[in-house]
Amino acid sequence: MPHKAFAWFILPSALAMLLFIALPLVSIVIQSLYVEHPQVLEQVESCSPFGGCTMETRVDAQATAALREAEPLGRFNGLGTYLNRSHLATGEIAEILRSSDGFADSLRQIYQLPFYRALLFTLCYTFLVTPLGMLMGFWIALAVNRIPAMLKGPVIFVSLLPMIITPLIGSLVIYWMVNSRGILGSLLQWVTQDPTLSIAASGPLTWAMLFLYGIWIAAPFSFVVFYAGLQTVPQDTLESAMIDGANRWERVRFVIIPHLVPLATFVSLVQLMDNFRVLEPIIGFNAQARATSLSFSIYNDLQAENGQLFASAAATSLLTILFVIVLLFPVLIRTWRDFSRKGAH
Protein backbone atom coordinates (compact mmCIF):
# COMPACT_ATOMS: atom_id res chain seq x y z
CA MET A 1 0.00 0.00 0.00
CA PRO A 2 1.42 3.44 -0.88
CA HIS A 3 2.35 5.63 2.07
CA LYS A 4 -0.24 8.28 1.19
CA ALA A 5 -3.04 5.73 0.93
CA PHE A 6 -1.95 4.14 4.22
CA ALA A 7 -1.96 7.57 5.91
CA TRP A 8 -5.55 8.25 4.80
CA PHE A 9 -6.51 4.72 5.84
CA ILE A 10 -5.12 5.09 9.37
CA LEU A 11 -6.19 8.73 9.85
CA PRO A 12 -9.72 8.06 11.31
CA SER A 13 -8.34 5.60 13.87
CA ALA A 14 -5.48 7.95 14.77
CA LEU A 15 -7.89 10.86 15.29
CA ALA A 16 -10.18 8.71 17.43
CA MET A 17 -7.24 7.58 19.59
CA LEU A 18 -6.09 11.18 19.94
CA LEU A 19 -9.53 12.46 20.97
CA PHE A 20 -10.65 9.62 23.21
CA ILE A 21 -7.37 8.30 24.66
CA ALA A 22 -4.47 10.74 24.40
CA LEU A 23 -6.26 13.99 25.28
CA PRO A 24 -8.17 12.55 28.27
CA LEU A 25 -4.93 11.01 29.51
CA VAL A 26 -3.15 14.37 29.27
CA SER A 27 -6.00 16.06 31.13
CA ILE A 28 -5.80 13.44 33.90
CA VAL A 29 -2.04 14.01 34.24
CA ILE A 30 -2.57 17.76 34.56
CA GLN A 31 -5.45 17.38 37.03
CA SER A 32 -3.41 15.08 39.26
CA LEU A 33 -0.88 17.88 39.83
CA TYR A 34 -3.48 20.22 41.34
CA VAL A 35 -5.64 20.00 44.43
CA GLU A 36 -8.99 21.57 45.09
CA HIS A 37 -9.01 24.97 46.74
CA PRO A 38 -10.11 24.88 50.38
CA GLN A 39 -13.12 26.91 51.38
CA VAL A 40 -12.37 30.47 52.36
CA LEU A 41 -13.27 31.01 56.00
CA GLU A 42 -14.03 34.29 57.73
CA GLN A 43 -14.58 35.38 61.30
CA VAL A 44 -18.02 36.91 61.82
CA GLU A 45 -19.32 38.56 64.96
CA SER A 46 -22.77 37.24 65.89
CA CYS A 47 -24.81 39.16 68.44
CA SER A 48 -28.03 37.97 70.05
CA PRO A 49 -31.03 40.26 70.76
CA PHE A 50 -30.43 39.86 74.49
CA GLY A 51 -26.93 41.15 74.32
CA GLY A 52 -23.62 39.44 74.11
CA CYS A 53 -21.64 38.80 70.95
CA THR A 54 -19.58 35.86 69.90
CA MET A 55 -17.16 35.28 67.03
CA GLU A 56 -18.16 32.55 64.59
CA THR A 57 -16.25 30.98 61.73
CA ARG A 58 -18.23 30.81 58.51
CA VAL A 59 -17.55 29.96 54.90
CA ASP A 60 -17.20 32.97 52.66
CA ALA A 61 -19.10 31.60 49.67
CA GLN A 62 -18.39 34.62 47.48
CA ALA A 63 -14.64 34.59 48.09
CA THR A 64 -14.51 30.79 47.63
CA ALA A 65 -16.34 31.03 44.31
CA ALA A 66 -14.08 33.85 43.14
CA LEU A 67 -10.94 31.86 44.04
CA ARG A 68 -12.15 28.77 42.21
CA GLU A 69 -13.14 30.83 39.20
CA ALA A 70 -9.72 32.47 39.06
CA GLU A 71 -7.91 29.12 39.32
CA PRO A 72 -10.32 26.42 38.05
CA LEU A 73 -7.69 23.67 38.16
CA GLY A 74 -7.05 24.32 41.83
CA ARG A 75 -3.83 24.89 43.72
CA PHE A 76 -0.65 23.42 42.22
CA ASN A 77 0.52 20.52 44.37
CA GLY A 78 3.05 18.75 42.16
CA LEU A 79 3.56 15.14 43.19
CA GLY A 80 2.08 15.78 46.62
CA THR A 81 -1.14 13.93 45.79
CA TYR A 82 0.78 10.85 44.70
CA LEU A 83 2.83 10.81 47.90
CA ASN A 84 0.10 11.58 50.45
CA ARG A 85 -1.51 9.07 52.81
CA SER A 86 -4.33 8.22 50.41
CA HIS A 87 -1.92 7.04 47.72
CA LEU A 88 1.73 5.92 47.91
CA ALA A 89 2.05 7.21 51.49
CA THR A 90 5.83 7.47 51.35
CA GLY A 91 6.08 9.34 54.64
CA GLU A 92 3.82 6.90 56.47
CA ILE A 93 5.69 3.89 55.11
CA ALA A 94 9.02 5.37 56.17
CA GLU A 95 7.65 5.85 59.68
CA ILE A 96 6.23 2.30 59.74
CA LEU A 97 9.56 0.79 58.69
CA ARG A 98 11.36 2.87 61.30
CA SER A 99 9.10 2.02 64.24
CA SER A 100 7.63 -1.42 63.45
CA ASP A 101 8.31 -4.54 65.52
CA GLY A 102 9.17 -6.72 62.53
CA PHE A 103 8.38 -7.62 58.96
CA ALA A 104 4.91 -9.02 59.75
CA ASP A 105 4.01 -5.95 61.77
CA SER A 106 5.18 -3.70 58.94
CA LEU A 107 2.99 -5.54 56.43
CA ARG A 108 0.01 -5.31 58.78
CA GLN A 109 0.40 -1.56 59.18
CA ILE A 110 0.99 -0.98 55.46
CA TYR A 111 -2.19 -2.95 54.73
CA GLN A 112 -4.13 -0.43 56.81
CA LEU A 113 -3.19 2.32 54.34
CA PRO A 114 -6.09 2.79 51.88
CA PHE A 115 -4.12 2.61 48.62
CA TYR A 116 -2.22 -0.56 49.53
CA ARG A 117 -5.34 -2.19 50.89
CA ALA A 118 -7.08 -1.55 47.56
CA LEU A 119 -3.99 -2.65 45.62
CA LEU A 120 -3.73 -5.97 47.50
CA PHE A 121 -7.34 -6.91 46.78
CA THR A 122 -7.02 -5.80 43.14
CA LEU A 123 -3.91 -7.95 42.62
CA CYS A 124 -5.43 -10.98 44.38
CA TYR A 125 -8.61 -10.64 42.35
CA THR A 126 -6.68 -10.27 39.08
CA PHE A 127 -4.24 -13.15 39.60
CA LEU A 128 -6.92 -15.56 40.84
CA VAL A 129 -9.86 -14.72 38.60
CA THR A 130 -7.85 -14.42 35.35
CA PRO A 131 -6.29 -17.94 35.22
CA LEU A 132 -9.25 -19.70 36.85
CA GLY A 133 -11.74 -17.96 34.54
CA MET A 134 -9.65 -18.91 31.51
CA LEU A 135 -9.34 -22.50 32.72
CA MET A 136 -13.06 -22.78 33.35
CA GLY A 137 -13.89 -21.29 29.94
CA PHE A 138 -11.45 -23.69 28.26
CA TRP A 139 -12.99 -26.80 29.85
CA ILE A 140 -16.51 -25.58 29.04
CA ALA A 141 -15.41 -25.14 25.42
CA LEU A 142 -13.99 -28.68 25.35
CA ALA A 143 -17.21 -30.09 26.82
CA VAL A 144 -19.50 -28.16 24.46
CA ASN A 145 -17.38 -29.20 21.48
CA ARG A 146 -18.16 -32.87 22.19
CA ILE A 147 -21.92 -32.75 22.85
CA PRO A 148 -24.46 -33.50 20.08
CA ALA A 149 -25.19 -30.66 17.65
CA MET A 150 -28.84 -30.39 18.69
CA LEU A 151 -27.81 -29.55 22.28
CA LYS A 152 -25.05 -27.09 21.48
CA GLY A 153 -27.35 -24.09 20.97
CA PRO A 154 -29.10 -24.23 24.38
CA VAL A 155 -25.85 -25.08 26.18
CA ILE A 156 -24.01 -22.19 24.55
CA PHE A 157 -26.86 -19.82 25.45
CA VAL A 158 -26.78 -20.89 29.11
CA SER A 159 -22.97 -20.61 29.16
CA LEU A 160 -23.16 -17.02 27.88
CA LEU A 161 -25.74 -15.83 30.44
CA PRO A 162 -23.13 -14.31 32.80
CA MET A 163 -21.82 -12.23 29.89
CA ILE A 164 -25.32 -11.11 28.87
CA ILE A 165 -26.32 -9.94 32.36
CA THR A 166 -25.06 -6.50 33.39
CA PRO A 167 -22.26 -7.04 35.96
CA LEU A 168 -23.84 -4.75 38.55
CA ILE A 169 -27.24 -6.42 38.22
CA GLY A 170 -25.68 -9.87 38.35
CA SER A 171 -23.74 -9.03 41.51
CA LEU A 172 -26.87 -7.60 43.15
CA VAL A 173 -28.88 -10.74 42.38
CA ILE A 174 -26.19 -13.05 43.76
CA TYR A 175 -25.74 -10.78 46.80
CA TRP A 176 -29.44 -11.12 47.62
CA MET A 177 -29.14 -14.89 47.24
CA VAL A 178 -26.12 -15.23 49.55
CA ASN A 179 -27.44 -12.71 52.05
CA SER A 180 -28.27 -14.16 55.46
CA ARG A 181 -31.97 -13.95 54.50
CA GLY A 182 -31.41 -15.25 50.95
CA ILE A 183 -31.81 -18.83 49.77
CA LEU A 184 -28.06 -19.59 49.57
CA GLY A 185 -27.29 -17.73 52.79
CA SER A 186 -30.01 -19.63 54.68
CA LEU A 187 -28.78 -22.91 53.19
CA LEU A 188 -25.23 -22.13 54.33
CA GLN A 189 -26.49 -21.40 57.85
CA TRP A 190 -28.38 -24.70 57.86
CA VAL A 191 -25.39 -26.70 56.62
CA THR A 192 -23.01 -25.17 59.17
CA GLN A 193 -25.64 -25.15 61.93
CA ASP A 194 -24.71 -21.53 62.62
CA PRO A 195 -27.71 -19.15 62.46
CA THR A 196 -25.45 -16.13 62.88
CA LEU A 197 -23.23 -16.96 59.89
CA SER A 198 -23.19 -14.12 57.36
CA ILE A 199 -20.98 -13.85 54.30
CA ALA A 200 -21.17 -10.05 54.40
CA ALA A 201 -19.87 -10.00 57.99
CA SER A 202 -16.80 -12.11 57.21
CA GLY A 203 -13.83 -10.70 55.37
CA PRO A 204 -12.52 -14.04 54.00
CA LEU A 205 -16.01 -15.16 52.92
CA THR A 206 -16.60 -11.81 51.21
CA TRP A 207 -13.32 -12.12 49.30
CA ALA A 208 -14.13 -15.72 48.35
CA MET A 209 -17.59 -14.72 47.08
CA LEU A 210 -16.13 -11.87 45.02
CA PHE A 211 -13.54 -14.23 43.52
CA LEU A 212 -16.21 -16.84 42.65
CA TYR A 213 -18.39 -14.18 41.09
CA GLY A 214 -15.42 -12.89 39.09
CA ILE A 215 -14.71 -16.37 37.73
CA TRP A 216 -18.39 -16.80 36.87
CA ILE A 217 -18.50 -13.63 34.76
CA ALA A 218 -15.02 -14.11 33.25
CA ALA A 219 -15.51 -17.67 32.02
CA PRO A 220 -17.99 -16.91 29.16
CA PHE A 221 -15.53 -14.69 27.28
CA SER A 222 -12.82 -17.34 27.49
CA PHE A 223 -15.35 -19.96 26.45
CA VAL A 224 -16.38 -18.04 23.30
CA VAL A 225 -12.80 -17.46 22.18
CA PHE A 226 -11.58 -20.98 22.91
CA TYR A 227 -14.68 -22.60 21.38
CA ALA A 228 -14.09 -20.64 18.18
CA GLY A 229 -10.43 -21.71 18.27
CA LEU A 230 -11.41 -25.37 18.64
CA GLN A 231 -13.21 -25.20 15.31
CA THR A 232 -9.87 -24.42 13.63
CA VAL A 233 -7.88 -27.31 15.11
CA PRO A 234 -6.59 -29.46 12.18
CA GLN A 235 -8.59 -32.68 12.15
CA ASP A 236 -5.85 -34.58 10.36
CA THR A 237 -3.46 -33.79 13.22
CA LEU A 238 -5.98 -35.10 15.75
CA GLU A 239 -6.58 -38.22 13.70
CA SER A 240 -2.83 -38.81 13.42
CA ALA A 241 -2.50 -38.51 17.18
CA MET A 242 -5.33 -41.01 17.67
CA ILE A 243 -3.68 -43.47 15.25
CA ASP A 244 -0.45 -43.10 17.23
CA GLY A 245 -2.34 -44.15 20.37
CA ALA A 246 -2.74 -40.75 22.07
CA ASN A 247 -5.58 -40.69 24.57
CA ARG A 248 -7.95 -37.73 25.00
CA TRP A 249 -5.78 -35.95 27.57
CA GLU A 250 -2.68 -36.33 25.41
CA ARG A 251 -4.52 -34.96 22.38
CA VAL A 252 -5.61 -31.95 24.43
CA ARG A 253 -2.14 -31.42 25.85
CA PHE A 254 -0.01 -31.92 22.74
CA VAL A 255 -2.36 -30.83 19.93
CA ILE A 256 -5.17 -28.58 21.13
CA ILE A 257 -3.38 -26.50 23.77
CA PRO A 258 -0.38 -25.58 21.54
CA HIS A 259 -2.83 -24.63 18.79
CA LEU A 260 -4.74 -22.32 21.18
CA VAL A 261 -1.70 -20.62 22.77
CA PRO A 262 -2.01 -17.43 20.63
CA LEU A 263 -5.68 -17.19 21.59
CA ALA A 264 -4.80 -17.77 25.24
CA THR A 265 -2.37 -14.84 25.05
CA PHE A 266 -5.11 -12.63 23.66
CA VAL A 267 -7.62 -13.76 26.31
CA SER A 268 -5.11 -13.21 29.12
CA LEU A 269 -4.41 -9.65 27.93
CA VAL A 270 -8.10 -8.78 27.83
CA GLN A 271 -8.90 -10.48 31.13
CA LEU A 272 -5.97 -8.91 32.96
CA MET A 273 -7.11 -5.43 31.94
CA ASP A 274 -10.75 -6.21 32.69
CA ASN A 275 -10.17 -7.82 36.08
CA PHE A 276 -7.74 -5.14 37.24
CA ARG A 277 -10.53 -2.56 37.02
CA VAL A 278 -12.91 -4.56 39.23
CA LEU A 279 -15.64 -2.27 40.56
CA GLU A 280 -19.21 -3.54 40.03
CA PRO A 281 -18.99 -6.61 42.31
CA ILE A 282 -17.78 -4.49 45.23
CA ILE A 283 -20.73 -2.12 44.81
CA GLY A 284 -23.24 -4.90 44.15
CA PHE A 285 -22.12 -6.95 47.16
CA ASN A 286 -21.88 -3.80 49.31
CA ALA A 287 -18.43 -5.10 50.24
CA GLN A 288 -16.46 -1.86 50.55
CA ALA A 289 -16.01 -2.40 54.29
CA ARG A 290 -14.30 -5.75 53.64
CA ALA A 291 -12.80 -5.35 50.17
CA THR A 292 -11.94 -2.35 48.06
CA SER A 293 -10.15 -1.91 44.74
CA LEU A 294 -8.30 0.83 42.90
CA SER A 295 -11.31 1.46 40.67
CA PHE A 296 -13.54 1.72 43.73
CA SER A 297 -11.12 4.26 45.22
CA ILE A 298 -11.57 6.40 42.08
CA TYR A 299 -15.34 5.99 42.31
CA ASN A 300 -15.28 6.88 46.00
CA ASP A 301 -13.24 10.04 45.36
CA LEU A 302 -15.73 11.21 42.74
CA GLN A 303 -18.63 10.51 45.13
CA ALA A 304 -17.09 12.19 48.18
CA GLU A 305 -19.57 13.96 50.43
CA ASN A 306 -17.28 16.95 50.89
CA GLY A 307 -16.88 17.53 47.17
CA GLN A 308 -15.45 15.62 44.25
CA LEU A 309 -11.75 14.93 44.77
CA PHE A 310 -10.60 15.21 41.17
CA ALA A 311 -6.88 15.30 41.98
CA SER A 312 -7.07 12.16 44.10
CA ALA A 313 -9.14 10.34 41.48
CA ALA A 314 -6.73 11.41 38.72
CA ALA A 315 -3.68 10.26 40.69
CA THR A 316 -5.27 6.87 41.43
CA SER A 317 -6.21 6.53 37.75
CA LEU A 318 -2.64 7.11 36.60
CA LEU A 319 -1.26 4.70 39.20
CA THR A 320 -3.79 2.13 38.01
CA ILE A 321 -2.69 2.62 34.40
CA LEU A 322 0.94 2.20 35.49
CA PHE A 323 0.20 -1.08 37.26
CA VAL A 324 -1.77 -2.36 34.23
CA ILE A 325 1.24 -1.60 31.99
CA VAL A 326 3.52 -3.46 34.40
CA LEU A 327 1.16 -6.46 34.40
CA LEU A 328 0.83 -6.54 30.63
CA PHE A 329 4.52 -5.95 29.91
CA PRO A 330 5.67 -9.62 30.18
CA VAL A 331 2.79 -10.81 27.98
CA LEU A 332 3.47 -8.11 25.40
CA ILE A 333 7.19 -8.92 25.36
CA ARG A 334 6.43 -12.60 24.76
CA THR A 335 3.96 -11.75 22.00
CA TRP A 336 6.50 -9.48 20.32
CA ARG A 337 9.19 -12.18 20.49
CA ASP A 338 6.84 -14.77 18.96
CA PHE A 339 5.89 -12.30 16.22
CA SER A 340 9.53 -11.49 15.50
CA ARG A 341 10.45 -15.19 15.43
CA LYS A 342 7.69 -15.94 12.93
CA GLY A 343 8.72 -12.92 10.84
CA ALA A 344 12.30 -14.14 10.73
CA HIS A 345 11.15 -17.48 9.33
TrEMBL record:
Membrane spanning residue stretches: 7-30, 115-143, 155-178, 207-230, 251-272, 309-333
Compartment(s) where it occurs, according to its Swiss-Prot or TrEMBL record: Cell membrane
SUPFAM superfamilies, sorted: MetI-like (SSF161098)
Keywords: Cell membrane, Membrane, Transmembrane, Transmembrane helix, Transport
ABC transmembrane type-1 domain boundaries: 119-331
One of the protein's GO biological processes: transmembrane transport
Domain of life, per lineage: Bacteria
InterPro entries: MetI-like, MetI-like_sf
Bilayer topology term: Multi-pass membrane protein
Coarse class of the protein's main subcellular location: membrane
GO cellular component assignments: plasma membrane
Pfam families referenced in this protein's UniProt entry, alphabetically: BPD_transp_1
PROSITE patterns named among the record's database cross-references: ABC_TM1
Protein family according to the UniProt entry: Belongs to the binding-protein-dependent transport system permease family.
Protein name: Carbohydrate ABC transporter membrane protein 1, CUT1 family
Organism: Pseudooceanicola antarcticus
